[in-house]
Model the fold of this input.
Amino acid sequence: MLKVEHIGIAVKDLSKSNNLFSKLLGKEHYKMEEVVSEGVNTSFFQIGESKIELLEATKEDSPIAKFINKKGEGIHHIAYDVADIHLEMKRLQNEGFVLLNEAPKKGADNKLVCFLHPKSTNGILVELCQEIEN
Ligand code: ZN
Done:
């Protein structure tokens, strides 16, 4: 894995949290994007090499809505940048980690992503992401 690409934070109200995080970080978000397949609106802040991704549910059965109902707002996942997502998925599966999707899928911010089950990673949902080359 190359670096922590971003930290995903589940929030109830994206516009309120955009204000909060722009005060906290001293800068504005650089993009907002809806990921329809995941039922989320996202907002990204660049912090050096890494990013903060705010996530707001767009529907009741969104994974983010379920997360907030269970645990409240807070850190939802940690995303690691990888050079070759297919290789990393194979490597991690061989190490005994539980992948939540069998093939990489299209995530926010022009990435291919794959998630690892928190039960196999000390309670933290892990995202692998690889930039899609255009
Ligand atoms: Zn993410």
User: Anything to note?
Assistant: The two ends are 22 Å apart (CA to CA).
